[in-house]
Structures are given as C-alpha cells and as structure tokens.
Fold this protein.
Amino acid sequence: MKKVYLYVMIVATFSHIKNIYAQGCVAIRGNSTCGASSGNSLNLKKGELNAQMGFRYFKSFRHFRGDEQEKNRVEDGTEVINKSSFLDFTLSYALTDRFYITSILPMVNNNRSSMYEHGGNPPSGLGERHETSSIGLSDIRLGIGYWLFAPKKHDFNYSIGLGVKLPTGKYDYKDMFYNQGVNRNEDLEKVVDQSIQLGDGGIGAIIDIQGYHKLSHHIALSTNFFYLFNVRETNGVLTRNGNSEFSCPDQFALRIAGNYNLMNGLNFSLGTRLEGIPSEDIIGGGAGFRRPGYVVSIEPGMGFRKNNYSFFISCPIAIYRNRTQSFEDKVRTQQTGVYTHGDAAFADYVINLGVSYRLRGSKKL
C-alpha cells in the first residue's frame, strides 16, 4: 500500500511539471519540455496511453534592467503589457514499461499593449496605447524517454528524455501598428514583437531529466531539468524597425519540489523554479535580437487523483527577476564604449491548470 500511495502522490504532483516556461518579454515560446512529464509517463504499462490538457496564463508588465526594477514605467503608464494564454494537448504512450514516447500540440493566444511601438512613449512620443495580437499553433514537441530503474521496485527513479522541437509555429506573424513613419501618421502592418511570435523558426534538440525520491510514507521530492538547444542562430525575420533579425534562442528550466500526500488522492506541493533564456546559445552563438534573462519562482501547487483521472493547479510566484545583457548589448557596448543593457517586462505570477486521463490502464493501482 505504501507504494500505491507514493504512486498517487507522484503522479498528481508531477503532472504539472512539464509546464515550465519563461515569463513575459523574456519568453519566446510556451511549453518547454519534450513531454517527459512524470505524471504522463510514470508507471505506464506497455500499450497504455495518457492524454493531458494543460492551460497556462500570465500577464507581464514589470520592467527590469538587470535585476533592478524600473518602477517608473508603471507609475508613468508606459509599461508594456503582455497577456499570454497557452493550451497544450499532450499524449504519452508506453512502448514498454520503461520506454515511452510523447507529443505536445501547443496552441497560443497573445495580446501585447504598448505605447513605444505606436508612436513612442511620452514626452518625446505621441503616448497613444494600442494593441497587437497573435493566435494559433506554436512549436510542436516530440520526444522519447526512458526510466533508468524498474518501476515500482524502488523508492526513487529517474527518466531521461530526448526530443525535437519543430518550427510549426508562425515566426513572422504580423499585425497593425499605429503612428508609424517619419511623421508618425501611418498605420502599417508589421511583424509583432518576438515575445508574442507563435514560433521561433528553428529546429531544436531537447534534453529532459526528471526524478523523484521518497523520503517518508507521506513526503517525496521531485526534480526536473530541461534544456532546449536551438541550432539555428537567427530565423531571417527582421524586427519591426528592421535593425536586426530575430534570434532562435536556447531555453532552460530547473525545478525542485517537495510533495505531501494526504492518502485520499489529494496532495500539496511546494517547489522552486529557475527558468529563462541565455544570452548566447551553447550551439549557434547569440547573434540576432533576443531578450535574455531568467526568473526564480516559488511554486505552491495542489493535485488530486481519482481512478484514471488526475487534476492539478499551481501558481509560480516570481521572487527574483533578471534581464541579463544580450549578445547584441555586449557588441554595442564594445563598439561605442557606452554601456548598453536592454530591459524586459516580467510577470508577477503564472497560473497553471490541467487534467489528464489514462487510457487502457487499470482503474485500480
């Protein structure tokens, strides 16, 4: 029975781990794993299928340059506001009791409100706030994973997942921009900001490592590490001002959490996350426009599992945000002798919701 309770706890608490994202203007894409969520793949028997639907929402508006918040942006009403909603459909299928494959179909709906893109911030600009949006399919993820130890025979286990990110999301999405041109009297259709593009245009390689450790009858630790290698440096799409091409950046995430099970299918978790985008890629360099940075969050969560269903909710709350100096910032600093460091807007929190259902599995654990 102890292993049954542990299984219930781990499935419910791991089921939301795959929803690891960077927040706000730093964010490029949504879902950031190859789908090796333990909630999807843990103890799947050969031939079993787990279907999951996850929803995520955030609103970014607090501007940071480095780790210093530019509070005047909100006070002056010149902040950029990104509202992003993600809906991910995930399927995990067990080839054996330890090998599994996963696919993620992500849909995205973004809305961006600003002044500087529509005639400029006051006092030098017009100070008119307008919105741009994007909606549609993002970058599909496909992956395969393997549990290193035989399921149910240990109080711990780790899985290693390898995957690919396909450039299925539109990365030159356009919308209407107002007060354009030299005299600021034209309305023109241009590419939207990188933070609300549906895709990045690159084929990416993914590594995903996950694990759990039972500490007691009620308590377990869970860990997750993810890295996306984007080989392509830039995607050929010029920014709205035509000064640079959009980059295809790497992404990374790390999560550690403690999980407490109440034995009736209900459980609680408390974790910490580190997630973001580096200034330069491990493969391919750092050329092109990007807003690198990272977020450290505290993430309380709650899950419930009954029969073949699992439900979860979590809310990562940002405790540290840092918009790091980009590769282009460093080049300009070197060329001009004047220190350059761009800013980015971050969210205060993220809302994650999800439900999963295991098909062809036994209703009894």
Notes: The radius of gyration is 21 Å.
